[in-house]
């Protein structure tokens, strides 16, 4: 038998496009060829289960090998094979998928969804790295004659008879000069590890040495010898394909360590197992949260029937869960023709919604069943919950029952619980509840102590997205305001309309203001004299809650708030007219002394906000020594 012909495509110009641009990464050629080999093997197993295979299946291991001298890479299987007519049909007619036809043929005879191929283009990825491709194949059908197909990357091919005893297919790639990087053992192994690690049929690549016990020595200790074994690069039954009821915690932890060998153990996990209205399996792990928000993304791996596709899963997984780790496997996720990235459609949205629901249900279950354990994990899982509440209304509706607020005393409250906790003492004159919080307990300690002196509770809001979460809570919680402890004097943060009489006259207040304006000499300080409790600080420096939030949002890249980041900081300097130090300043006989004391009080306020540095800090220390010696 000998035949020559022309590959059936509509225009010769499309072939180099397929060869060079169909796949963004040339290494994918190996994934496609191995997937085809697995596909052929799965078809054979399917036929055998239907009683349509006359011979024994035997060993169905797919083998990948290379020859550096001959510059070839070979992928060999013992699958269904092809006749010469089938080669012409499936190989020469680009985009005619044998898998699609096979599934259609046997769709009424049970489950055929484990067939991988879909578009019929994967085979041609070989030409991205090969200057010539040989395909030698023999069909499983009784009396079938082996065939050999050869093509040099043009639209011309040749089919001849071949000398092949076993059924199955060999694809031999004669590697092009510009792709010799792939003629390397560890390069090939790394590609197989990446894309084929969990294929459902064993894939062999070379051999490995293994130490096995070989009797005992004279001291009755075991002896070992080195033996050569096939190197099987894949686990054909990964954890996500098994029933959750058959697995233990240690199984999940072991699998996680295989996926992420350099990571700490996860907090907990969710096993996905859905077969209607779409097929979805997988395991999602909650890692211990880190502060490098972006770096942690792209840790979820997407598979389609155990073939690795991508770790770009932003459409399948909700944005707020992109920080999770794990695997998702679904044949129902639509891919582009090169199986390189996702195409959004209604199935993707349904899967996205299902994952959101499963995560919310899992968190709710953990909170309800073991609140103490849940609270101990909150510092790590809080970022997921808050991010989810910010970005998904449906998630918020569930999460509001298990989202926690943490106080400086390390106590945890749900949103409803905290409202009850503070409503007696932290309600202002307008019947608004005021939640006080700190973003930096060490730097804001002066203000925290002022709040505690009034028995006010202070929340800890120092997470990476808490500046957004504070705004969000105000929008969601009725008649509730959130204010940072250093946003104003304590009497103004929770204004209960309790007037304190001033010990200063109006003229004295004006004099105090003038003294401080001269001593401070800072146009970005809005100076005022207030009648506060004598126990309050003599001078307090604050940035209004509104201004500071705008600044924080700008730092976080808050879109329309960006311009705020370029505006100079504006502060409120509040002088406590009832404090003894202010009276001492007024009584000082010399203006120089008044200025010295006013500057000292101002620097103390600056110091409490960690705003004193450089020469100002040096001068403050010197002045403190001078005043102490008086």
Describe this structure in words.
Residues 340-555 are annotated as: B. Keywords: ATP-binding, Chaperone, Cytoplasm, Nucleotide-binding, Stress response. It is found in: Cytoplasm. The protein has 630 residues and is α+β, with helices and mostly antiparallel strands. The protein has four domains: 2-205, Histidine kinase-like ATPase, C-terminal domain (Heat Shock Protein 90), CATH 3.30.565.10; 239-371, 2-Layer Sandwich (Ribosomal Protein S5, domain 2), CATH 3.30.230; 403-493, 3-Layer(aba) Sandwich (Rossmann fold), CATH 3.40.50; 506-544 and 562-628, Heat shock protein 90, C-terminal domain (Four Helix Bundle (Hemerythrin (Met), subunit A)), CATH 1.20.120. The chain is built from 18 helices and 22 strands. The strands form five sheets. Strands 1-6-5-4-7-3-2-8-9 form a nine-stranded mixed beta sheet, covered by helices on one side. A five-stranded mixed beta sheet has the order 10-11-14-12-13, sandwiched between helices. The protein has a three-stranded parallel beta sheet with strand order 18-17-19. A hairpin with a 2-residue loop joins strand 12 (300-304) and strand 13 (307-310). The longest helix is centred in the middle third of the chain and has 24 residues, at 346-369. The model is unreliable at 95-103, 109-120 and 336-343 (pLDDT under 50).
